[in-house]
Each structure stands twice: as structure tokens, then as C-alpha cells.
Amino acid sequence: MQSASSQPQAWLDLSGRVGVVTGAGRGIGAEAARQLASAGAAVAVLDCDAVAAADVAGEIERRGGRAVGIAADVSREDEIRAACTQVRQELGSCDVLVNNAALVGYAGPLMDGDLAQWNRMLSVNLTGALLCTRAFGAQMIAGGRGGSIINVASICGHLPLPSGGAYSVGKAGLMMLARMLALELAQHGIRCNSVSPGLVRTPATEAAYDDAAVASARQQMVPVGRVAGPQDLADVIVFLASSRSGYINGQDILVDGGLSQTLMGLVPKPTQPMRA
Ligand SMILES: NC(=O)c1ccc[n+]([C@@H]2O[C@H](COP(=O)([O-])OP(=O)(O)OC[C@H]3O[C@@H](n4cnc5c(N)ncnc54)[C@H](O)[C@@H]3O)[C@@H](O)[C@H]2O)c1
Q1: 39 Rama class: left (phi>0) / alpha (psi -120 to 50) / beta
Q2: For a FRET experiment, which of 13, 207, 216, 265 has its CA 20 to 30 Å from that of 187?
């Protein structure tokens, strides 16, 4: 029989903590909210889709966790301020912030793409994280208990996504935002890191996996032999939220099953082996 301390929830204990996850109405954010709750945290499920946020919060509560669904657009400062007040009143002051909300998808070439679309993507994917960090980070500072901020970036912040519009630029910015905030907030005991998913099957990407040939080709590209699920990311997010990662600050963790390491294996080689 396992002792209590050898169970994952105990090892990553977040009881008494308050987590806020943006874009938590579905996909990676929803799973991060569920897993933070499983580790004992009270969780604010924040999403611009009010119904989805309420559904995920209700599911957590039915399983015995504590959660509140909050409808807010991360790019709207007034809505984030109101969300912040609601979290403090209903759950207590924020200890863990997961900046996960993003617009995902292809936006076309940079040279003649729609500028309004570029600005909208950056306002959600990058500025939204800054607005949430300012609001909930101030709560962490006032709470005096330190905290952990986790930005959900992307492999596309490391490697350019062709026709991705502002996506790769925003994700690279999100990683640098985490590094800069790591320095600025360390004096308050607040750590800031990012997590970069590789290929993940979520509602945002599901259409690609409906095509069996695309799904199979994607799976074969990943050294571990499978595309990730939201759980793979949620596990790392909970670790970064917990004190078990207490000396990790200003880092990005690439969670891609080794996909980013495969480039040199694609370089054509002569049929006769070259000797070293
Ligand atoms: N799925 C992947 O393959 C993949 C790969 C790399 C990185 N990521 C990143 O992981 C994160 C989650 O991705 P996902 O696949 O779960 O996405 P998803 O589209 O399935 O879920 C995103 C959620 O964010 C919400 N949202 C969108 N704009 C918002 C806004 N302005 N304010 C509040 N909520 C908003 C949506 O309503 C949705 O519930 C994103 O940051 C994404 O860029 C995903």
C-alpha cells in the first residue's frame, strides 16, 4: 500500500492555495485546472466562454474540489480587474497563475496578412498574459505568501510556424515575459516560468487529427511515438505550481516528446557511411 506522502497529490500538495487558470474552459487549460484542484488548490476557471468556464468549475466541484467559473477576456483590463476582485472575494488571494488563454491557428503570411488580426492575436496571447500578471501578481504580492506564475508558450516560440501570423512572435515574447518577470518578482518570492507544448490534441487542433493520414504522420514525427494530450502539460504545470519546483525560476520547459530534437536526423546522408 502507498503511504500518503508517496502519492502524487501529496508530493505536489497545493492545499490551501488558490490557482487561477486562463483559457480554462477547454483543452490544456481545463486539464490544468482539474489537476491543480486534484492537488488541493481552490481554482478559478477563467475563460471568455462563460458556459465552458462554468461547466469545468462545476465538474471540479462535483468531484469534491473547490472552483469558481469566471467569464473574462484576458485582453480586457477592466474584465481582468473585476475577475481579480471576484477571485479574492470567493476563493482568497491568488497563489498560482497559469497564463494559458490564446488564439490558436494559422493567420497567413506576414507580408500581406491582416494587421487587425496580428494585433488581436498579440493582445490576447501576449498582452493578455501581462494584464493578468499585473492584476493577479499584485494580489500575490499583497498576500505575502509568494507564488508561481506559469506562461503556456509553445514549441512555435522556439521554432517559426510558417503562415502562423503573430503566433510564433507572441509565444517567443511570452517566454521572455516569464524571464523578465522572474527577475522582477523574485524579491516577493514569486517565481515565473513558461511551458512550451509541442503537438497536443485539444479542441483547438482536433480538426487536424480528424484526418487519419495527418494524425498518423504527426504521431510518427514525435520520438516518443505519440502526440501529447492535455494531461502531459497539466502534469508539468502542477509541478511548476508546487514548491517541488521552488528553485526553478525564469526557465522554459519544452514538453514535446523530443520533437524539437529531430532536425539533424532529417538531413540527407550519403548511401556509403561516412567514417568518423
Ligand atoms: N494544442 C496544441 O497543439 C498547442 C501547442 C502548443 C501550444 N499550445 C498552447 O496551449 C494553450 C492552450 O491551447 P489549447 O490547444 O488548449 O487551446 P483551446 O483553443 O482548445 O483552448 C483555449 C481556451 O482559451 C479560451 N480563450 C481564447 N481567447 C481568450 C480570451 N481572450 N480570454 C479568455 N479566454 C480565451 C478559449 O475560449 C478556450 O477555452 C495555448 O496557449 C496554446 O497556444 C497549444
Answers
A1: alpha
A2: 13
Mutation probe of ligand 1 site: the residue of 48, 125, 169 with most atoms within 8 A of C-beta: 48
Classified as helix, coil or strand, 99 is strand
Say how far apart CA 152 and CA 253 lie, in whole Å.
10
- Given the DSSP bridges, would you call strands 18-22 and 252-255 parallel, antiparallel or unpaired? unpaired
- In this structure, are residues 108 and 29 in contact, taking their beta carbons and an 8 Å threshold? no
pLDDT in tens, 231-252: 999 999 999 999 999 999 999 9
Q: pLDDT by residue (tens digit) across 250-276? A: 999 999 999 999 999 999 988 887 777
Q: Global pTM?
A: 0.96
CA 84 – ligand 1 centroid, Å: 20
101 Cα to the center of ligand 1, angstroms: 5
Structural domains in the chain, sorted by start: 10-254 (3.40.50.720)
Q: What is the number of residues in the chain?
A: 276
Residue 205 CA: distances (Å) to CA of 109, 116, 269? 20, 23, 34
Whole-Å CA distances, 14 to 5, 8, 19, 119, 159:
13, 11, 9, 36, 33
Task: Let me know if 167 is a catalytic residue.
Answer: yes
